[in-house]
Design goal:
Elements: E1 2-4, E2 7-11, E3 16-20, H1 48-62, H2 71-86, H3 97-106, H4 112-124, H5 135-150, H6 164-174
Antiparallel strand pairs: 1-2, 2-3
Helix pairs in contact: 2-3, 2-4, 2-6, 4-5
Length: 180
């Protein structure tokens, strides 16, 4: 038998018995011997109404849109400009894109410059430009795109159909400075 301050352990060949000593000593003391009806701050809500409000608050926090001047918003406009430049008939729906790009920055730890470079790569590559048509798809494929872009220590992709000059033209076009 082992005694470890608050418990004892009795071991046999088939099983072990663990006994908690002075159990009452380690329990929180309730006022008047009754549990409190109020939840502690770390408890989840217990009523249906409280649970619905809690879920609504979580959804609001996770789906909040970044400000118009933010990097996420600027990158959204940049991706949209590339998509429209590649296919003028495309009808992108960028309403949720700033939130996706914001997640790439805050949660995934991407820098705005990395995201911009991956957008450039994806929209200049013959395979990727028709496949990356939203910020959600860009986020999902980011690691693969980044590896391809870096060459991953192998020979670089030969699928590029545009030049870096096109990248600058797109940036100007997104700002409304189209020189064509």
């Amino acid at each position: 038998m082992k005694t470890i301050g608050f418990s004892t352990i009795k071991t046999t060949k088939k099983y072990s018995i663990i006994t908690i000593c002075n159990y009452e000593k380690y329990q929180a003391q309730e006022i008047g011997g009754r549990p409190s009806k109020r939840p502690t701050p770390d408890q989840h809500p217990t009523t249906t109404k409280e649970l619905k409000n809690y879920k609504k608050d979580l959804k609001t926090l996770s789906s909040s849109q970044p400000d118009e001047g933010s990097d996420a918003y600027k990158l959204t406009e940049y991706l949209k400009a590339w998509i429209l430049k590649n296919n003028p008939r495309a009808r992108p729906k960028p309403k949720s894109w700033p939130a996706e790009i914001d997640k790439m920055i805050r949660i995934d730890g991407r820098t705005p410059e990395e995201i911009r470079r991956v957008i450039d790569f994806s929209q200049m590559d013959d395979f990727w430009w028709p496949n990356i048509l939203s910020a959600g798809k860009l986020r999902k494929q980011f690691d693969q795109l980044f590896s391809k872009m870096q060459g991953n220590g192998r020979r670089p992709s030969t699928g590029c159909r545009r030049t870096r000059d096109d990248s600058q033209a797109i940036a100007d076009w997104a700002k409304g400075e189209d020189h064509e």
